[in-house]
Design a protein that fits this description.
The chain contains 23 helices and 27 strands. By secondary structure, the protein is of the alpha+beta class.
C-alpha cells in the first residue's frame, strides 16, 4: 500500500509541475488577431454614420464623421463583421477578454472621449419572424478611448434599451456570446447631439483566452492533492455519499419524470403549510389507454416530454411540481390562482401534442382539480382530497378544470353515501331483477325480455339505477354488479321452460369491454347454467362507441363468436356515425324512448325515428322501439316498419314468473277479449 501511495505522490507531483509550466506558457494562450483575420473576410471593417470618411489600412481602421445639428439620429462608428457559418455567428464565449488599441477625437471640446463597444449576438432560428433589430441581442460596455485596452468579456451586459424597445421576453434577456455577428465601436452618445468632426481609430483588435483557465487548473490540482491526502477516508465517504444520494434520489424523486414523487412533495409541502396557496392537481384520464396501446415506457415518455416542454411555463406559474402517482401531477402556486387566460395556457400546454417517431402526434387527455387554500392545512391529504373531489366531479363531462367548493363537496358526499349503499346492498343481497317484455308485432307475442336491476335497500330503492350504476362504474363496483345480474338472470331463467327462441337481454357496462378477462368469466357462468348463448343479447349504450378501441372490438367479437347478440341501446342520443356502424357491426339497435314519446307531437322526432328505422333496415339490423305507452304510438311505429317494442303499453317491468304465465296464454285470444294487445 505504501508503494502505491509513493507512486501516486510522484505522479501527482510531476503532473502538477508540468501543469503549472503549461499554464504560464504560450501554449496555453488562445489569441485571434481580428485585424489580421479581417483581410480574409467578405465584409471585414466598415463604417457606420452620416457624412463619413473611412480608412481601412493594414492593421489600422478609422472613421471620420461630420456631425451637423440639422440632422437627427446621427451616429459615428466602426463595425467589424465576424464570419458566419450556416447562420451561426462567431463563438466569443470561449474567450476571456477583448484587447484593442483605440483613439477617438473631436473638434468639439465638449466631447469626453467615451466609446460604446457593442457585441451583437445572433438570437437564433426562433426569431426568424421578428424584425431585424429583434434578431440580434445587443451587449455593450462603455470605455474611454485612451490607447491600449483590455476589456473582460464578463463586463459586457445586455443593453436595457434593446430589451425595453422591443419588449424582449425574459427567456431571451440573458448574456449570450455564443453566436456573435459583429463587434462595433461607436461614439458613446447615440445619437450625437453636439456638432463637429469625430474620428475613431483602431490599431489593434484581438480576442484573448486560455486553452485552460487558471481557476480550472488550480482547482484540479487542489482537488487532486486533497483526494490524495485523504484517499483512503475519502474513498470510503465517497462510496457512502454515492449510496446516500442514490437512496435520496429514489426516495424523493420519480425516476421516469425527474419530478418530486409523493414523498418529495410531502417534504416540500411543509413550507406551504399555514400559507395561502393554490393547488392544481392534473389527472391523465387516458393513461390506461396509452399504457394499453403503447406500453408503460411510452406513456412515461409522453408525460416527461410534456413536463420538459413546458418547464419554463411551469416555473413561472408554480413553485412546486410533483408526480403523485403514474397518472397524476400536482402543481403548487403560492398565493391566489392563475388568471383565466393563464389557466387556458396551462391546460393548453398539458394538452399539447408530442411528436413520436413512427407513431405521429400523441397527447395526454387531462382533467384538473383546483383547491384554493387561504391557510393551507398542516396535513397535505386534506388538500389532495379536495383536488381529487374536484376532478371526480368533472370526469363525466367536457369540463377541463374545476375548483373545489361547498357544492362540489356535497356532490362528492352524495356519491360517497351511494357508494356505501351499493356495497351494503351487495353484501345484504338487496338487489333483485325485474323484466321488461319485448313484443313482436309480426309474431303477435313476446319474444324475449330485458333484465332490469332494482334494489330493496332504503337508500337506493327510490333512486334510478342509472344514477348508482354510474357511481359503481367510477368506484370499480360495477364488475360485482354485472356478474351478479348475469348470475341472477341465468338462475331465474333456469326455473322456467321458456320457448327455445325466447331471448334474454342483459345490460353490460362498458368497463367490462375494456377487460379481456371478463369474457372467460362470462363464458363459465353461461356454461355452468347450461344456457344457450344464442338466446342471449348483450346491450351497450351508443355513447360508448365514442371511446371504443381495438380491445373493446376484440371483446365484442369474442361474445359474438359464442353466439351472443349485441344490441346498441339508446340509439340516436349519442354521436355514432354510419361509418362506426360499418366498422362495429351490431345485431340490434334500440331507439331511445325520448324520440318515441315525442314522435306524435314533434315532426323533428318523427323524422329522426324514420331515419333510424331506415338505417336499421339498410344495415339489416333488428330495431326495437323503447317507451311505447299507447296504441296510437304502437300503430304509428308498425306503419313505419318497426316490428319490436318495449313499453308500458305492453307491460311494466315485472317478475319473470308473471311473464312466464303470460307466455302460457294466447295473445290473440287476449286481444279479442280486451280489444287491444295489453300484456298486463
Amino acid at each position: 500500500m505504501n508503494r502505491i501511495f509513493k507512486s501516486l505522490f510522484l505522479v501527482l507531483f510531476f503532473f502538477s509541475a508540468l501543469a503549472i509550466v503549461f499554464l504560464k506558457s504560450e501554449y496555453n494562450v488562445d489569441k485571434v488577431d481580428l485585424l489580421d483575420v479581417k483581410r480574409e473576410l467578405v465584409e471585414g471593417f466598415h463604417a457606420s454614420g452620416r457624412d463619413i470618411f473611412f480608412s481601412d489600412e493594414e492593421h489600422l481602421a478609422s472613421v471620420e464623421c461630420n456631425i451637423v445639428t440639422n440632422y437627427k439620429n446621427d451616429i459615428c462608428g466602426l463595425v467589424f463583421v465576424l464570419p458566419q457559418k450556416q447562420g451561426k455567428g462567431f463563438p466569443l464565449d470561449r474567450y476571456d477578454s477583448l484587447n484593442f488599441n483605440i483613439e477617438s477625437h473631436s473638434s468639439n471640446d465638449a466631447y469626453n472621449h467615451r466609446i460604446r463597444v457593442f457585441v451583437k449576438n445572433i438570437l437564433g432560428t426562433e426569431t426568424d419572424e421578428l424584425e431585424e433589430i429583434k434578431a440580434f441581442k445587443f451587449h455593450a460596455v462603455r470605455i474611454k478611448s485612451n490607447g491600449d485596452m483590455v476589456v473582460p468579456l464578463s463586463r459586457f451586459k445586455v443593453e436595457t434599451w434593446w430589451e425595453d424597445m422591443n419588449n424582449i421576453p425574459f427567456n431571451l434577456s440573458y448574456v449570450d456570446m455564443s453566436s456573435v455577428a459583429s463587434i462595433e465601436f461607436f461614439i458613446n452618445d447615440m445619437p450625437i447631439l453636439d456638432e463637429g468632426r469625430y474620428t475613431i481609430t483602431l490599431s489593434k483588435l484581438e480576442l484573448v483566452g486560455r486553452v485552460v483557465s487558471d481557476a480550472v487548473l488550480y482547482k484540479v490540482l487542489l482537488y487532486s492533492w486533497l483526494l490524495f491526502s485523504v484517499f483512503s477516508m475519502a474513498f470510503y465517504f465517497l462510496l457512502k455519499l454515492e449510496t446516500f444520494n442514490k437512496m435520496r434520489g429514489q426516495a424523493y424523486y420519480d425516476p421516469d419524470s425527474n419530478l418530486l414523487n409523493m414523498i418529495g412533495f410531502e417534504e416540500k409541502y411543509k413550507k406551504v403549510a399555514n400559507k395561502k396557496a393554490t393547488f392544481y392537481r392534473v389527472r391523465v384520464i387516458n393513461w390506461n389507454s396509452l399504457v394499453r396501446h403503447f406500453g408503460l415506457l411510452m406513456a412515461n415518455y409522453l408525460l416527461k416530454q410534456v413536463v420538459v416542454k413546458n418547464a419554463g411555463l411551469n416555473k413561472n406559474y408554480f413553485s412546486i411540481t410533483a408526480r403523485l402517482n403514474n397518472n397524476e401531477l400536482i402543481f403548487v402556486r403560492y398565493g391566489g390562482p392563475l388568471s383565466i387566460e393563464q389557466e387556458e395556457i396551462f391546460i393548453g400546454a398539458m394538452l399539447s401534442p408530442i411528436n413520436v417517431s413512427g407513431l405521429g402526434e400523441l397527447r395526454l387527455d387531462v382533467k384538473v382539480g383546483v383547491s384554493l387554500e387561504e391557510k393551507s392545512p398542516k396535513d397535505s391529504q386534506f388538500v389532495l382530497d379536495r383536488t381529487d373531489i374536484s376532478i371526480q366531479s368533472i370526469l363525466r363531462n367536457k369540463t377541463r378544470l374545476q375548483f373545489y367548493s361547498r357544492e362540489v363537496s356535497q356532490q362528492a358526499e352524495q356519491k360517497t353515501f351511494l357508494e356505501k349503499q351499493i356495497k351494503l346492498a351487495l353484501k345484504r343481497r338487496d338487489f333483485y331483477l325485474l323484466y321488461m317484455p319485448i313484443y313482436s308485432a309480426s309474431a303477435n307475442k313476446m319474444i324475449g325480455v330485458e333484465a332490469l336491476l332494482r334494489c330493496r335497500l332504503q337508500g337506493l330503492k327510490d333512486i334510478s339505477p342509472e344514477v348508482y350504476i354510474s357511481i359503481a362504474e367510477e368506484t370499480g363496483l360495477v364488475r360485482d354488479i354485472d356478474l351478479m345480474v348475469i348470475d341472477m338472470a341465468l338462475r331465474d331463467f333456469s326455473q322456467f321452460n321458456f320457448p327455445s327462441d325466447f331471448t334474454l337481454s342483459i345490460n353490460l357496462s362498458s368497463k367490462e369491454l375494456l377487460d379481456t378477462s371478463f369474457v372467460s368469466h362470462f363464458k363459465r357462468m353461461v356454461n355452468r347454467a347450461e344456457f344457450d348463448f344464442n338466446r342471449l343479447c348483450l346491450e351497450i349504450t351508443e355513447t360508448f362507441l365514442l371511446d371504443i378501441d381495438t380491445v373493446c372490438v376484440k371483446t365484442i367479437d369474442d361474445f359474438r363468436a359464442m353466439g351472443c347478440k349485441v344490441s346498441l341501446d339508446d340509439f340516436g342520443t349519442g354521436y355514432t356515425s354510419f361509418q362506426q356502424l360499418v366498422n362495429f357491426p351490431v345485431d340490434e339497435i334500440k331507439i331511445d324512448r325520448d324520440f318515441i314519446g315525442g314522435m306524435k307531437n314533434n315532426k323533428g322526432y318523427d323524422a329522426i325515428v324514420n331515419s333510424l328505422i331506415s338505417i336499421a333496415d339498410a344495415y339489416n339490423y333488428k330495431v326495437v322501439a323503447e317507451g311505447v305507452e299507447d296504441i296510437e304510438t304502437y300503430e304509428l311505429l308498425v306503419s313505419k316498419g318497426c316490428d319490436f317494442f318495449q313499453g308500458y303499453y305492453f307491460s311494466k317491468p315485472i317478475k319473470l314468473s308473471d311473464i312466464y304465465l303470460m307466455t302460457e296464454k294466447s295473445i290473440t285470444d287476449q286481444s279479442k277479449a280486451d280489444g287491444d294487445i295489453h300484456l298486463l
